[in-house]
Amino acid sequence: MKRRNSRQDAIRELVRGKSIRTQHSLVQELLALGFSCTQATVSRDIADMGLRKLPEGIYVLAEDLHLQRMLSEFVVSVLRAENLVVVKCQPGTASGVAAAVDDADLAHALGSVAGNDTVLVVVDDAERAASLQSLIDKLSSTR
Fold first, then answer.
1. Same structural domain for residues 9 and 56?
2. Structural domains in the chain (count)
3. What is the tens place of the pLDDT at every residue in 61-82?
4. CA–CA separation, 50 vs 91, rounded Å?
5. Residue 97 sits in the same domain as residue 120
């Protein structure tokens, strides 16, 4: 059971960090991380975890679907300064975007503050902030 949980944690990170389009590419990414698994195993994990495919063909976590909708509709740009991620939004939409970021319970995101058209997300370190910036950029550009 421990192996399955750690594999699913790895899948969660891969799907959030990269644009995964096929089960085969997910198997290859897992193999590169040291997980020995088949496409059938990954298929079961996808079903267990509730992964969905966006119309663009990218896998997304079920819990990220609301976040993806908010980001793709309202985000204009994403910038990063060290451990801070700045999300520029359409006027009047930042509080909704910040709520979606908070609700997604993203690992290492400590919290967010919203103004009228800007969301500031504080992340626990710069490397993880870069990953969060990449995730937000990926989810917001799937229009």
1. yes
2. 2
3. 887 888 888 999 999 999 999 9
4. 33
5. yes
Do 49 and 99 reside in the same domain of the chain? no
The whole-angstrom separation of Cα 82 and Cα 92 is 26
Which range of residues forms the domain containing residue 55? 2-60
Q: What is the SS3 assignment for 45?
A: helix
Identify the pLDDT of residue 142: 54
53, 84: one domain:
no
Confidence of residue 1 (pLDDT cuts 50, 70, 90): very low
Residue 59's φ and ψ, nearest 5 degrees, are: -70, 140
Beta carbons within 10 angstroms of residue 39's beta carbon: 12
**104 shares its domain with 133:** yes
What is the 8-class DSSP label of residue 18?
S
- Distance, in Å, from the CA atom of 35 to the CA atom of 42, rounded to the nearest integer, reads 11
Do 45 and 67 reside in the same domain of the chain?
A: no
> What residue type is 106 in one-letter code?
L
Q: Where are the alpha helices (DSSP H) in 59-141?
A: 65-74, 94-103, 126-140
- CB-CB neighbours of 63 under 10 Å: 14
